[in-house]
Design a protein that fits this description.
By secondary structure, the protein is mainly α. It is about 70% helix and about 10% strand. The strands form 2 sheets. A two-stranded antiparallel sheet has the order 1-4. Strand 2 and strand 3 form a beta hairpin. It is elongated.
Length: about 140
């Protein structure tokens, strides 16, 4: 049983697993921010541009709500395509925001790599190496 827990600890403490866990937590928080942006900033503006249309309320009613003989209300049967459209818009906006974030991170990473490459001392040229080899061979003879 001790081997099981030590193997699990080794697995859980690997860099990839910890990095993935951090990514999931940050991704969840980022998703909440983007969802708030979509629902509270972008969609009201889209609603204003479309004359106050609320996508979530759009539906295709297949059967109207009725009241049966016993006085019980029977709910309508409807396809809520507006909620589907809203989900697609949310996805596209979230995907675009994540794309912009990853693009910015990649640009920063590229700049760091360029700075690191510039800081590395240049090695000897091919001519210098060949000259050193020639000199060593001449000393041996």
């Amino acid at each position: 049983m001790g081997k099981f827990f030590s193997d699990f600890k080794e697995f859980a403490m690997r860099g990839n697993v910890v990095d993935m866990a951090v990514g999931v937590v940050i991704g969840g928080a980022f998703g909440a921010i983007v969802t708030s942006l979509v629902s509270q900033v972008i969609m009201p503006a889209v609603g204003l541009l479309t004359g106050g249309v609320n996508f979530n309320e759009l539906k295709w009613v297949l059967k109207e709500a009725t009241v049966d003989a016993a006085g019980t209300e029977v709910a309508e049967v409807a396809i809520g395509y507006g909620a589907f459209i809203q989900s697609i818009l949310d996805f596209l906006i979230i995907a675009f925001c994540i794309f912009l974030l990853i693009r910015a991170i990649m640009k920063l990473k590229k700049k760091e790599e360029v700075v690191e490459a510039a800081e590395e001392p240049a090695g000897p040229t091919q001519e210098q190496l060949l000259t050193e080899i020639r000199d060593i061979l001449q000393k041996r003879d």
